[in-house]
Amino acid sequence: MAKLLLTQTFYHGLTQKDRECLDASAKGSFLELTIGKAEILLDKILENQSWFQDKAQHCHQTEEIPEEVNALSTKMENLLHWIDQRAKYTNINPLRVNPIAKV
Fold first, then answer.
1. Which domain holds residue 22?
2. Residue 103 domain-assigned?
3. Is residue 27 part of a domain?
4. How many structural domains does the chain have?
5. What is the C-alpha separation between 76 and 56, in angstroms, rounded?
6. What pTM did the predictor assign?
7. 46: CB partners within 8 A, 6+ apart
C-alpha cells in the first residue's frame, strides 16, 4: 500500500507536461500500471536519461539539459531508492504487487 501511495504522490507532484510525457511512455495512464511495471518504466526512463547525459558529455555539447528533466530524473531516482529500501525491509518482491488502483 505504501508503494501505491508513493507512486501516486510522485505522479501528482510532477508538472502537467511531465505527467503527459509519463502517460505517453506508459501508453496510457501511468497510474493504471502495476507497481512492477511502473518501476520498470521508470528504470527505462532513468537509463535513457543517463545515456543521454553520458552521450552529451562525450560529444562536448554545450546545451544544458532542461531543469524539468533533471528534476524528473531526481524524483525517479529517489522513488526507486525508496522502493528498494522498503522492499528490503519488508521482503516484498516489487514485481509481485497488486495493480495501482484507478484514480
1. 2-96
2. no
3. yes
4. 1
5. 20
6. 0.49
7. 73, 76, 77, 80
Rounded-to-integer distance, Cα 65 and Cα 74, Å = 13
- Alpha-carbon distance of 67 to 81, in angstroms, equals 21
Going by C-alpha positions, the residue among 4, 80, 14, 12 that lies closest to residue 41 is 80
Instruction: Tell whether 102 is covered by a domain.
Output: no
Chain position carrying cell 504487487: 97
67 Cβ contact list (under 8 Å, min separation 6):
none
Which helix (H) or strand (E) segment holds residue 13: the answer is: none
Partners of 99 in the beta sheet?
A: 34
Any idea how long the chain is?
103
Is 61 among the domain residues? yes
The rounded average pLDDT for each run of 10 residues, N- to C-terminus, in the chain (103 residues) is 83 89 91 90 82 54 65 86 78 54 49
